Queue: 4 jobs
Job 1
Amino acid sequence: MPELPEVETIVRFLREGRDDKPSLYGFRIEKATVLWERSLAFPKLEEFLQNISDQIITSISRRGKFIRVELQNNYFIIHLRMSGDLWVEPETTPPGLHHRWMLHFGNGWRLAFNDPRKFGRAWMVADDQSILGNLGPEPFDKTLTADAFFKQLHHCRRQLKPLLMDQTFLAGLGNIYTDEALHLAKLHPMLVSNNLSEAQCAKLLAAIRQVLREGIVRQGASIDWVYRGGDFQKYFRVYQRTGKPCPVCTTPIERITLGQRSTHFCPICQKM
DNA sequence: ACGAGCGCCTGTCGGC
DNA sequence: TGCCGACAGGCGCTCG
């Protein structure tokens, strides 16, 4: 489920609690259980189990699509990839079929990483920049001005769709929000970055921020069988709407493959 | 520098 | 009903 709005929703929930679930701030990790070893990218299992025990969660934040849990001695960083999710649940619940690891707090609660497709990864590292250091700017960063974004787009010569999904260019967009932003900005996904005018670049940045804001307000999108969180899927303009009318001009939405990913756009609103 | 192909995984859905 | 391919919110790798 993870693009910026879904990850942001999960981070807020872990930080603030939701419904009957507590905030994890200040929780002491009594011990961890790893059920699928490949979910742990670093360090080796033994070292991880030993070093995570007895540490206290001091903060929880998001960088791009990564979740950064700050502990006293180091960072626990999680990437949900395609199907990962984090559940706060009582220890009395039987572990789910797709649980890959769990942090036990010894107070009746645990944090479980549920990930049917097993693509998700977690790292425990002293320096968070060893994992997050190559990420591009945050879309809402105030220093990312229209002018800076124009320069970034003109610094390379790439199709907009794969470029916007490149996390070293901009951190947080995935397949859904890229398609949605390009439609809102009325830009064809195959347009080449350094051909955009200043006005088009400014419009694209504004569109990216708008769709991400909408996604966060709706608490993310829930599609398929993963992530039953928000309802942004009810408001998709183009994503997974092949053949359905464009919300602006009613022309049927088209689907092509770009950068190995299905790409949805309106052939009238988003001309080459 | 850039894009395409593929691998990693499990699950769902539509067609036959 | 069962089988089979296509497809799914990501990303790292190789190969042209």
Job 2
Amino acid sequence: MTLAYPLDDPRAARPASALSDAFDRHGVRMAYARNEEIYAQDDAVELLYRVVRGVVRTSRVTADGRRQVGAFYYPGDLFGLEPGPDHRFGAEALDDCEILVVRRSAVRAAAGDAELDRAILEAQRLEMERLQDHVVMLGRKSARERVASFLMSIAQRGGDDHADLAMGRQDMADYLGLTIETVSRMLTQLQGEAIVAFPSSRRFEIRKWTALEALAA
Amino acid sequence: MTLAYPLDDPRAARPASALSDAFDRHGVRMAYARNEEIYAQDDAVELLYRVVRGVVRTSRVTADGRRQVGAFYYPGDLFGLEPGPDHRFGAEALDDCEILVVRRSAVRAAAGDAELDRAILEAQRLEMERLQDHVVMLGRKSARERVASFLMSIAQRGGDDHADLAMGRQDMADYLGLTIETVSRMLTQLQGEAIVAFPSSRRFEIRKWTALEALAA
DNA sequence: GCCCGCGTTTGATCTGCGTCACGGAGGGGG
DNA sequence: CCCCCTCCGTGACGCAGATCAAACGCGGGC
């Protein structure tokens, strides 16, 4: 059985223990293939999900086909806890991944209600902060700044100076509110200025942290 | 003493009673002048606020002076319950207004912890849905669509076909991620197509609901 | 190795919105 | 009543990013 929280993962200790226990005892391990749907936009909210392996993206597609990616979730992250009765964003597997799924009612039965609420509250805290930052980025940042911010956040997650992009350019674009071409251009631009280096299209290394930080605003 | 929840206000019955009671018993009524700061960006989060009269906006200003408005709050709305230890958006009075303020710890003492959490959860639900919609709007909608959505949401609040804009063009622009000029142009455009009518710059009436709905996407 | 298919990059052009500049309206104070 | 000040609308223009189009890798299958 794969360890859900690798020991070197800073998020390992994060979730409240009641919730963690519930996952361990009542969770069902599911496997999803690349681009497979985990839950659909407008599905009822009744489960909690935790990424074990792989990366998950949430997205919302408008009636006329425009897509906005809401977030990316990495191993250890909780997702699917949208506040309303049904999901306003769908969730899909970015690559092949394993997910722990638990019924909310099972968690509620296992832990005290108060404890459950607190655990969800904490996860929602992260979610809301992400949303707030996303709003500011989409509302007020240039394409260059958005791409820089994105690379920064990915790099911070890894801790190291270089990191892998789990997603392709289209997913980046849909997260950043840009087109795939603009994302690509900004990446080459940043490379040209030797701020980042891309040994391959999915792998990058930050060369000038201060320059990138300044751009990320 | 002004009645906090006018009887004809559909939001009157919304907040959980424990929280409502706490406001009534421990709340302090504060008055703020137009553009006065209620709390600052980066202030510690320790109070809960409820609008009694007037309108409040939350906003975040970046280091280089760009401003993003997060939300507008109307009488009956709870605000200030950001999830982190400190406020990522500041709050200011849009016009002269009265606010009920209560210390979180007072609420916690008055109600059971679980009850408090549930009440906050419910308010956060609204907040998160607002944020999600905001992200989609800023990421994927055109200027015309943003302005249309905004007018729709204002009109729905009033219920009636015509409504007052509590805010000026600059606040709209900063909420919609646009410039004041673009907002102005879109408004004249919509007027030109007889979709809305503006008897004065702060007051409007929707003439073609279906057309506006189609635009709001 | 070679071919094929998909994701990415790059180029050319277009356009929606931002920027800059100015004129007008409204309304509060003297 | 008039002035001034702030907010709003409009016009001309420029540019960032979208769109359209094509070429370039790179990895997998044969």
Job 3
Amino acid sequence: MSSSLNRYTYNMYSKNTYSFFDNVYAVVRLIPKGHVTSYGAIAAYLGSKGSSRMVGWAMNSAHSVQPAVPAHRVVNRNGLLTGQHHFGTPGMMQQLLEKENIKVVENKVQNLKMHFWDPVIALA
DNA sequence: CGATTGACGTACG
DNA sequence: TCGTACGCCAATC
């Protein structure tokens, strides 16, 4: 993952953690339209398989990052839209996904396997 | 500076 | 199959 030294040096991530967050953002931005991936998959791709929570934590700050991160394409292992509450208004995340032709029922991505985009495989 | 807290995931009973 | 326990590691209290 090219850290791509993004120059938006956010004071809050000016440490070595900056790399991790930047990598997360970079991967998420690489998710093709109409596809989704999971926190765990991203964590695994970054080498810290058990740090899936950190990926979620990174997304927590994603809203203040530019260019924008398509966080709505990141769901949990079950395809559940666990982070929808972070999108301002409830249902917005689902709306964004459906706009990309991804069916969402009961806050869950339908046919997840078909839309799943694994960075470990895609960026191999 | 120790305790708590997550947009998670796996292991276990 | 379902619920609980725990690890992961930075940020926040």
Job 4
Amino acid sequence: MSKGKKEPERTKRPTSYDVARRAGVSQAAVSRAFSKRGYVGAEARAKIEAAAKELGFRPNALARSLIDKRSRIVAVVIADMYYSFYVAILHQINGALRQAGYQTLLFSIPSSQDLDTIVDDVGDYRVDGIIMVSARLTTDVARMSEALGVPIVLMNRYADQPSVNFVVPDDHQGGRLVAEFMLAAGHHRFAYIAGIEGASTSRDRGDGFRAALPSSPQVKAGDFSYEGGFAATEALMRGPAPPDAIFCASDIMAWAAIDALRHEFGLRAGRDVSVIGYNDAAESRWRNYDLTTVVSSPDSMSHRAVEILSALLDREATPPVQERLRVHLKVRGSARVPSDYEAENVEMETGR
Amino acid sequence: MSKGKKEPERTKRPTSYDVARRAGVSQAAVSRAFSKRGYVGAEARAKIEAAAKELGFRPNALARSLIDKRSRIVAVVIADMYYSFYVAILHQINGALRQAGYQTLLFSIPSSQDLDTIVDDVGDYRVDGIIMVSARLTTDVARMSEALGVPIVLMNRYADQPSVNFVVPDDHQGGRLVAEFMLAAGHHRFAYIAGIEGASTSRDRGDGFRAALPSSPQVKAGDFSYEGGFAATEALMRGPAPPDAIFCASDIMAWAAIDALRHEFGLRAGRDVSVIGYNDAAESRWRNYDLTTVVSSPDSMSHRAVEILSALLDREATPPVQERLRVHLKVRGSARVPSDYEAENVEMETGR
DNA sequence: CTGAAAGCGCTTACAG
DNA sequence: CTGAAAGCGCTTACAG
């Protein structure tokens, strides 16, 4: 229609040749001035910097990547992102990557089922590496890494393959911590609301919990979702042996448990039944939840993931790099507190 | 340490020359075969495709961007992302961009204050365009667009600059919808919990609300946060004229209002006081909240944002493109329902 | 210290 | 239809 109007002319950005011309030096000198490690005389450098500033020149990172074989782009693959814990992780990864000099190419996929649909895109942009965080993991990560020729670091969850790199919370320890706390508080009838089958998080948290308990807890799958946690809680409470202490494999299911107890059974978490979660997502501090939970610090996990990937990229580490990060229990009001309880890795929420 | 071990050799990916050699054609032919619009004979094409498949060849998108001046990368800038509504938006944008053939370079910044720190990074990677979604907006977007030479589309929030592109919910309409609904339910003492000063969302929602009310509502700032919404609700209820109907500029503040009413005043939203929010984020469907709220469809907003940017990039549109999307009210249990209420843009939650 | 030149992996006129 | 050649914006040995 308004083809006649003056179109928004995409302003062409200056190149190193433009700067060279203006500064009266060679294009190579400009390149050296901008790539730290090159020799440039003091006055040449001054002229170049002045010219670059006037022109608003900044080197084209894409062109550079072509020659030095490093795009400085990292693919971050994240599935099932609706839980706020993953948002915190994503935010932290992005910040850590930027600080380390990398950019984040985002692949937010509906579920990890769809992982295969993105490997072409990931590959086409020649990312230097991949960080993956997803609830379920159906793909052969090792093969994917091989096919793309770049290292992959898994976060929060590991795969049952010998050669993959990962950084996860020490979930077994987390489960034990919860069991010991509940035992000290005098609970007797334990239940575990698991996540989804096959997830290392769900399995290890449950194993640690069970290992520290005198008898086996009841177990119900909660699907790592609010609805799943709600239904699991209902089933447990209507069952033949309602538990007096429920450990949930993730906070979101614990919130659901608290809501189910209140709205379906008129029970209050912390007084009638103890509920403990995992992750310490933001909502756990909300007045309605005030959740006692295991802190798995998305910030340190994210930073380690980036450090590991960095080391792998700089050939300063050899895969597999596999780390389990220490966790601790944050005590709030959703679970009965043992009197005079003192233990390592347990921290009372101050204030309130 | 283990420098002696065989290092993980980064496998070099094949180039168009490798494919050409194997297929017995020129490199140019390979390029043409992969760039739709080029002429390649049927048998040449067959040989090329076979060779490419054997070698696992895919064109280097970064190299291509150099020559055709389109990186097909879009920067998505998102601040204050802790609210789940923004997560949904981010996910939708990413999906829509991928479908349109673009990749997402993520810039998740602590707050929009930090916007300036990322423009260099955004520029260095020669993104084709920018989509911005943030709670506050302190930067001169028009100038930023000018400086980088690429179009910017704002989402959910607009700026008071004549030339910016944006797509937002029709917030004035949303505010009116809420007022009419509350009036029909027989409420008399209205309150508005605003977000932050200067945000178009907060202003327009409040203006629409006020415009449809017979008298001015009380107003308290809630900072678009849980804590802020909680404090605002407390202040209102302890004030000289406790409201019987509270409209919150965003869901997260409405959840806080519901919790504050229950835990601080022993009141139930929907029975004692009506609470209505804005956005229909996932938590609003949780049993504890069951929030009546204005639906501002992050999915359609995201798709439109991508379409607009696309059109701008293809020179099929001239800035500014400014759109306000129709909203509707989703009726759940947190606000009294007028008897026999029927209105356009009001939808009862089915089921339960 | 500095410039000329080659090359990274592509696309695109331009001849044949 | 197809190949040779130039060029995108850089970096990096290599001579001077």
